[in-house]
Each structure stands twice: as structure tokens, then as C-alpha cells.
Amino acid sequence: MSSPSPGDPLAIVLLSGGMDSCVTAALARRTCTLALLHVSYGQRTEERELHSFREIARHYGVERRLEARLDHLKVIGGSALTDASRDAVSARRPDSSIPDTYVPFRNTHLLAMAVSWAEVIGARSVYIGAVQEDSSGYPDCREEYYEAFNCLLRVGTRPETRIDVVTPLIHMSKEQIVREGLRLDAPLHLTWSCYTEQEIACGRCESCRLRLNGFRAARAADPIPYRAT
Fold first, then answer.
1. Where are the domains of the chain?
2. Can you say whether the dihedral through the CA atoms of 190, 200, 67, 171 is positive or negative?
3. 155 three-state secondary structure
4. What is the CATH code of the structural domain delimited by 10-217?
5. Sheet (strand 10-14) strand order
6. The overall pTM is greater than 0.85
């Protein structure tokens, strides 16, 4: 496992505490010095995700961290991730192809915060573990979304600012992400992906199912506990 050198460029990694963001951090640290950003927004498992963030940051010895909140996303609502009265397991709306676990325009809020911090601390890139091909179909996980966001950065930041949003997992399947995490010796045992539970993962929500299918396809054991598989 390679470690960054003092001369490596500074990069911010949006680290939710989930498997995808953990593998993204493992990839970024090969060539960059890391700063880690975690955002809580009233999601059901925010305490567990924050715990995972802190443990992963400690594992990698990253001292430059920012823990922030976007509570207005919960107040705005519209998602089963922030509203416990909605179904986060089947999470299907009859009038939409997008699951009800989609938090409206969430990634734009997260990236805006990351870019603001990047301008202040001099980071050259923002890494996010977005996955297009093996995700839940969220519109803000598509490659064209990140291409458009990078265009926005060119006109919405200082002329001397040079920041790019980097999506190293965008075309990977969950199997490939698991294999990459294992290859990089990423601390997958510290991650949390479940939408609904904070002690033992439910094994039923789409995030759990995608993760479990990825480990099965990679012929590896998922190191976190599940209630049902």
C-alpha cells in the first residue's frame, strides 16, 4: 500500500463512510495528500456514517478533516433517506424511474461545499465515489452531470482557481469496486452502506443488496454484519 509524499497535490475526498467513498479515498491517496470532508444532512444513518468516516480517517492518518451539516436537506424532504415515514427498502415511486432514496440535488450541495473548501485550502481536486453503471439510477451519479459540474467550476470560481471533480469509480460495477478495495487493502470493514439500520445492516435495502451482490460476484466475504441476506 503506497503512501502519499509531501510534494503530492492536495485533494479533498467526499467521504460518506460507505464502501464507494472509502475505495475512492484509497485510490486518491496513491497520488494525493488527502483532506476528508463528511456531510451529515439528516439521513437515517447519519450517526453510523459519521462513525465510519472518523474510523476511516484515523486508519489513513488524515488530520485535515471537515465535518459539516446540511440540515436543510432534511427540512426540504422528498426522500426516504431523510424521512423515516417513507419506505427506504422497496423505495419505488409509481410515477418515476428514480428510487425514493434519491435526495433531491444532494450531490450538488455536497460538491459546492467541497469546492468552497478546496478554494480556501488550495486543493486541486475533489474526489467523489459516484457510480453510474451499478448504482440506483440517481441522476446526479451520471458522467454527464460531473462533466457539466466541472464546466460550472470554470466560470464559478476565481480565475486562478484550478479545481477538478474526479470520479474514479464512475464506470465500475460493485464487483469491480470490491476487487479494487481489496487490492488496495482499503478498510472495508470500517464502512457502512445500509440505508435504514445503524447497528446491523438490514440486507434488504437497495444499497445493501448492491453491496452484497458485489462481494458475492468478487467471491469475497463482506466484513460487516447483516440482519438478512
1. 10-217
2. positive
3. helix
4. 3.40.50.620
5. 65-69, 33-40, 10-14, 125-127, 164-166
6. yes
